Description:
The chain has 84 residues and is mainly alpha-helical. The chain has one domain. Helices cover 71% and strands 0% of the residues. It starts with 8 loop residues before the first helix and ends in a 7-residue tail after the last helix.
Amino acid sequence: MSITINLTPELEAQLQEKASQKGQDISLVVSELLARVLEWETADTEEAIKAIQQGLDDFENGRFRSFDEFAEAQRRKYNLALEE
């Protein structure tokens, strides 16, 4: 299958440079990059769904903390000042 896309000159130059460095045709480099992005996106979505489900399961089983406890933990973790 053939797809035509319009690239900015800067992006085209980056892809051409990458293809030159790898000694490959630019079409192959673009195809590999798109495949990796799609694989990452699928894995990222699956991980997010699992994390959400874990959170729901924890809540249903009484494993949760109050917002105040969460906020305090975040303030400590990121060294945030308490807003007045």
